[in-house]
Amino acid sequence: MAPLANILGTPIAASSNSWLITPNVGLTVWTLVVFAICLFILSRLVFPRIRQALDDRRKLITDSMDAAQRTREEAEKILVEYRERLKEAREQAEEIVQRARQQAEAQAREAHAEAEARREHLLEQTKRDIEAETRRSIDQIRREVADLTVMATEKVTRRVLTEEDQQRLVQDALSELDFETLSSGAR
Asked: What is the pLDDT of residues 71-94, one digit of tens each?
């Protein structure tokens, strides 16, 4: 302990118990000088580097926050754009489906109309064919009736009739037959 007391410049007897409490002006001055030198060295060499590191860290954090904000805004824009495109795609799909339905309905109507027209055409053709066949049948019946009348008259009268007599008999026989009932019955 003695060397410590000598270094501090205090008597050993007086400072044995209270050398930390009693102020020593010399020690205080040297402590302040050493503190000022350390503070000067720290302020010239260490504090600027610490301040620079803190500034760099602050700038990095600020830049990261700005980048995150920009990324978030871009993501929101992309999300809005995606939703708009999705909406447009749905509208286009609905439009395509609607057009397909309309085309299918139009084709169905057209096919129905075409089938109806074809049916009408076939019906008209059939009517014409029936009428033509009826006329042919009536003409054939007339010829047969005329032939039968001539034959019957020849047998009854036992003579050959002249052309004029045949025509008159045929006309009489035909006038007695009601061909209108035959043609309406065939229809």
From this structure: 999 999 999 999 999 999 999 999
